[in-house]
Design a protein that fits this description.
Oligomer: single chain
Number of helices: 29
Shape: rod-shaped
Largest sheet: 7 strands, mixed
Length: 844
């Protein structure tokens, strides 16, 4: 058997996924899949609420047969004399068109009327009876009684007298075209017009008209068939229905035509329905969208009871279209519309009449379909090409913006112009496409992150063990902290690291390691160990590992001393040693006392390193410069080498090497010039610092500059030749310092150039993922220009930095003095340029 080819979804390009999604949506759009059509209908209904208009002078009035009228006048259906009285009253009020939205398809009869007709017909059938005068009188009385009881005749007479009554009829509709055979009554023919056969029309199998007695007297007939969308909501009206090769108008259309004195037989059907001067947009099925003007009772509304009781005036009805219809719950026909769920059918008719009279239509031009497909394609291109290539936040913002724009465009076109653009399809495509592409990206990123995390854990373990083997315990702890402490193997590694810290009498660091392990719960004897180590850390001072170290009990009344100086408290720890706050009791002066750290020095080298420490400290102590920290004394107390120096009130420059905390250019020039002056002075006396970096440059509270740790780096480098450690920070080393060659003052100026670069930009000129890469970049790679990082930096400063960072010593400034001269020239150029660009003072 051959291998089965498995394609992971993660391997499929984003543009392919985008094309597939777009193609699926175009198919869904063309097939009008019901779930998406339902979403579009909801969007349609939402937009309908923005199109509702307040009618200032309505031409349509509704007379409602409501619940109150039925309770007062009797159960429905009423005798047709009630309706005839209303028709007569409306005629007297000057109504132009009366729409009777009640279908009377059968004659009204009663037992008494049937009996009277039978008696009258028997009399008329007997010739002898017609010769008897008394019988003739009885016959005439029967005629009067029959006429009185004949409600159909009374209503028919009222309809005929009014000459403005439009009556409804109802068709039985089928999806297939009905047979067009057979002759239709004359009253149906006069209310329709000849149509060519088309299979898209709504076709009727049969018709339910009003009784002939009413139909012949009515001024027009129109159907009251209601169409619902797939979700049961009425959004359209079939304005024409095909029956027996003729097209029959809707009840609303006939009301509007009679109001304008038009005849349906003048109608012409094409891309629209045109009757004289009116043009109605229709679709292939002769359907018209209904533009709803509002919820129930948007039109002027009067109760049938109020009309009968003369509680309304004729002025309210004159020259209007009045529609009489049932609105009582449970009797009248209530349907669901975009504006209201229970909407009387008579109100739908009123809205449709208003639409026709005011040319207020909702339309879908044929080219909208192509526009919607173009939108789908454009959105498909967006999710296929744009989203995968921009950041998640930006793509989300663009997607939301497009979503809002297309929604607003759909609402605007619908509410102001009556254009129905199907925006839900491209909007759903945009939403689903964005979700799929971003989810795919997120899942891939998560998988890669998990893989990288697993690799990172193993890497950190190996690095930690490597550093621990070299005695670099702090760096080992830093790497172990990046591994999950829940792992039992990691706990064991950390436990052994803590034991190493204990052997070196670094109790506080051992406690930190043990507490980190306990963050995941109890482990071995750590709680007991921590208690014991805390007691030891409170008694051992000065960071010394010698058994005869000076001890300090915090509760002791007498403070311990180094030489003649009282040790008050620890100020900090660094690579060189520990710094304490001390006091000279003879002159009552506070000072900083720095001790030499022995933990990383082999015991057979300690004496040699002490001698070098004293020698370098003595050389630095001879330096008397306002920008160099003052060294008061140096000595040895019970094997602990110390240096008493000026106590500085301020902070180093490390905090000003970030983009957000950079100092002004002028301040940076002042600081660098001050350091360069200090270095030039030291180099004159043959003292090279070897470890210029922000942490060794102090900016005092009074803005003065102090350079610290002169000569210490050389001592510590010598002490670690055999351990493989490199003291100081590699980022600030000169190429010759990294190469292990002899260094001079030009090396310090290179390091100052790095500090200068970092203070100006907030970034280091040389970086690397590892120390090896960093050292390679320092020795071979030119840094990015400071102007690339901050175009505001003057050209003269960029030139000074470029010269300071020369790879070869002979390419750099040969002395701090020449460095300062160029700084001063640059400063003058900057000031001159600022004055030249300053606005001229106003004339007096």
């Amino acid at each position: 058997m051959g291998r089965q080819l498995k394609i992971s979804p993660s391997k499929i390009p984003d543009w392919v996924i985008g094309i597939i999604i777009t193609f699926i949506f175009i198919v869904i759009y063309l097939t009008e899949w019901s779930p998406f059509m339902a979403a579009e209908f909801k969007s349609y209904d939402f937009r309908s609420t923005f199109r509702q208009k307040k009618l200032n002078s309505a031409k349509v009035i509704i007379v409602g047969i409501d619940q109150d009228s039925i309770e007062r006048l009797g159960r429905w259906p009423w005798p047709r004399t009630f309706i005839s009285e209303a028709v007569t009253k409306l005629r007297e009020y000057g109504v132009k068109v009366t729409g009777l939205s009640v279908l009377y398809s059968e004659s009204e009869s009663s037992d008494g009327l049937v009996a009277i007709r039978e008696i009258r017909q028997k009399i008329e059938a007997d010739p002898k009876a017609l010769e008897d005068k008394k019988i003739i009188d009885i016959h005439n009385s029967l005629l009067d009684a029959e006429q009185y009881l004949n409600n159909d005749g009374i209503l028919s007479d009222a309809i005929g007298a009014a000459k403005n009554v439009v009556l409804p009829m109802m068709f039985s509709l089928e999806k297939t075209i009905a047979e067009s055979k057979g002759k239709i009554p004359e009253f149906l023919e006069t209310n329709s017009f000849k149509a060519s056969f088309k299979d898209t029309y709504h076709s009727a199998l049969s018709v339910l008209p009003p009784i002939e007695e009413f139909a012949f007297k009515a001024t027009a007939l129109g159907h009251i068939n209601v169409l619902t969308s797939g979700d049961g909501v009425v959004r359209k009206e079939p304005i024409l229905i095909y029956y027996k090769e003729r097209l029959f108008p809707s009840f609303a259309l006939q009301l509007a035509l009679k109001y304008m004195d038009y005849d349906i037989r003048d109608a012409k059907v094409g891309k629209s329905l045109q009757i004289n001067k009116i043009k109605i947009p229709i679709d292939a099925k002769n359907e018209v969208f209904i533009s709803y003007n509002g919820k129930y009772k948007t039109f002027p509304y009067y109760s049938f009871l109020d009309l009968m009781n003369d509680k309304v005036t004729a002025a309210n009805f004159r020259d209007k279209i009045v529609i009489i219809g049932v609105v009582a719950p449970g009797i009248g026909s209530l349907v669901s519309t975009p504006v209201q769920s229970n909407f009387p059918a008579v109100e739908i008719t009123a809205n449709m009449v208003e639409n026709i009279l005011n040319n207020n239509h909702i339309v879908r031009p044929g080219w909208f379909k192509y526009l919607e497909i173009v939108l789908l394609v454009l959105f498909g291109i967006f999710i296929s090409v744009v989203i995968p290539h921009v950041r998640a936040g930006l793509s989300a913002a663009i997607t939301i913006a497009i979503f809002i724009i297309i929604s607003a465009a759909g609402i605007f076109l619908f509410s102001y112009y009556g254009y129905w653009l199907k925006v839900s399809y491209p909007m759903i495509l945009l939403f689903i496409g964005y979700a799929v592409i971003v989810s795919k990206r997120f899942l891939l990123t998560e998988r890669k992150t998990e893989e990288m995390a697993a690799d990172s854990i193993e890497t950190n373990k190996m690095l930690g063990l490597s550093f621990q083997g070299q005695g670099m315990l702090d760096m080992a702890f830093e790497k172990f902290r990046k591994t999950p402490v829940e792992d039992e193997s990691v706990k064991e590694l950390l436990y052994n690291l803590g034991l190493d810290f204990e052997r070196k009498r670094m109790f506080n660091k051992a406690i930190a390691v043990y507490e980190h392990i306990l963050g995941d719960g109890e482990y071995k004897d750590l709680e007991e160990k921590i208690k014991r180590l805390k007691t030891a850390s409170e008694t051992v001072i000065l960071g010394s590992t010698r058994k005869d170290a000076t001890l300090m009990i915090e509760s002791a009344e007498t403070k311990p001393t180094l030489g003649r100086y009282e040790v008050l408290k620890e100020l900090g720890r660094g690579a060189m040693g520990i710094v304490y706050l001390g006091k000279d009791p003879k002159i009552n002066r506070d000072m900083a006392i720095k001790t030499l750290k022995y933990e990383e020095i082999d015991e057979d080298q300690i004496d040699e390193i002490k001698q070098r420490f004293f020698k370098e400290a003595e050389a630095a102590g001879k330096l008397s410069h306002p920008n160099i920290v003052k060294i008061y004394d140096v000595g040895d107390d019970n094997g602990i080498a110390y240096m008493a120096m000026e106590l500085l009130s301020g902070g180093d420059l490390t905090g000003f090497c970030q983009p957000a905390t950079r100092l002004p250019f002028g301040e940076v020039l002042r600081i660098v010039a001050g350091v360069a002056d200090a270095l030039d002075y030291a180099h004159t006396y043959g003292v090279v610092h070897r470890d210029i970096k922000p942490a060794n440059i102090m900016l005092l509270e009074n803005k003065e500059i102090r350079v610290t740790d002169f000569g210490i780096a050389r001592v510590m480098q010598s002490s670690n030749t055999q351990t493989g450690m490199v003291m100081g920070t590699p980022s600030y080393m000169s190429p010759e310092q990294i190469a292990g060659r002899k260094v001079d003052g030009r090396s310090d100026l290179f390091s100052l150039g790095v500090v200068f670069y970092e203070l100006l930009t907030g970034d280091r000129p040389f970086k690397g993922d590892s120390i090896a890469t960093l050292m390679y970049n320092i020795t071979t790679t030119a840094p990015a220009s400071v102007k690339e990082l901050d175009p505001r930096i003057p050209n003269c400063i960029a030139q000074i930095i470029n010269k300071t960072l020369g790879k070869k010593p002979e390419e750099r400034y040969q002395s701090g003095k020449s460095f300062i001269e160029d700084l001063n020239k640059c400063k003058k150029m900057i000031i001159a340029k600022q004055r030249a660009n300053a606005p001229a003072p106003p004339k007096q």
